[in-house]
Amino acid sequence: MTTIYNPIGWARQFKKQELAFELRHEDEQLKKTKFKQNKPKTVKLVDILAVSYGAYRINKETYIKDIRRFEEAPTQFPNKDLVRYYYDRKNNVEWVPSDFPAFEPTEEDYAKVTEALKWMKRYVMLGLTELDDFKRDMVNELSKEEIPVRSIGRIAFAPEFIKRDQHENGLKKEIRMEYRDSQYLGNEKEPVEAVIKFLDKRYSSQWESFNYTAVTTDGNLVSFMNKFEQNVGDMKRIKAKVKAQTKNKLFEANETRLNYVKLYKV
Question: Are residues 173 and 206 in the same domain?
């Protein structure tokens, strides 16, 4: 049997398939355009802050900057992505990852919003002149009733910012009242042994270590970096060497910077 090649029929079929593809593509683009046109340009501060606290709750009261995927555990999304995907899913605007953990803000999240806004009002009363640029921008954003969608990333950081701000405010008072007479533990490179209580910690992704502020049982402030996580309030015995004689960043009290720190049980 002889097959007759029909170039005209083949061309028509190809053109038909090409036209169908173009129509589907145009329809998808039209939907995206329509969604973008319907996307709200602002959201209510109370609502987006509640969503931010919901994201903070999902990430176990921590602020995560990068996505973390595991073989046998749920994906951990950055806080700002959780907030962004929440609104994308709600408004059918963008593609949302299949492993995105759908959530809704709870009454507890809204209660935290109320407390957070009360805390931030203190800055309006005290004035913004002594604040750094980032803190000033945060205070300004949290003073509005409506928030631009482009500010979602900053508002997603608000729960961590407020928790840190409250902690540092309390720590500053503690240092001013109890450790203002802190003394240096020695000169540079001298060995140090002491029992300490951890007052503050902050993780550095750059150094993959925790930066700690602590106080000895004699009321002398120390600070150092260590890869192992300790909780604020924990007690440890340390052996270390003096790196430098510095001042505490929250209050002008003497603080000994240590290195080569080894931690032991008390």
Answer: no
Mind listing the pLDDT tens digit for each residue in 51-94? 999 999 999 999 998 888 888 888 899 999 999 999 988 887 66
Question: CA–CA separation, 244 vs 259, rounded Å?
Answer: 9
Structure letter (DSSP) for residue 229: -
Closest by CA to 92, choosing from 160, 33, 17, is 33
Query: In this structure, is the dihedral angle defined by the CA atoms of residues 38, 39, 45 and 51, taken in order, positive or negative?
Result: positive
**What is the value of pTM for the model shown?**
0.73
Residue 113: give the domain boundaries.
22-178
**Residue 239's beta-bridge partner residues?**
193, 262
Q: Kindly state whether residues 172 and 192 are assigned to the same domain.
A: no
DSSP secondary structure letters along 179-192: STT-----STT-EE
- The last residue of one of the domains, among 178, 195, 225, is 178
Q: Does position 27 have pLDDT exceeding 90, yes or no? A: no
Are residue 126 and residue 104 in the same domain, yes or no?
yes
Same domain for 172 and 120?
A: yes
Helices (H) and strands (E) in the chain, counts: 7, 7
Contact 48, 91 (CB under 8 A): no
As a whole number of angstroms, the distance between CA 40 and CA 33 comes to 13
Coil vs helix vs strand at 266: coil
- Which amino acid is residue 251, in one-letter code? F
Structure tokens at 220: 């002398």
Q: Which two tokens stand for residue 106?
A: 């709870």
Quick count: other Cβ atoms within 10 Å of Cβ 28? 10
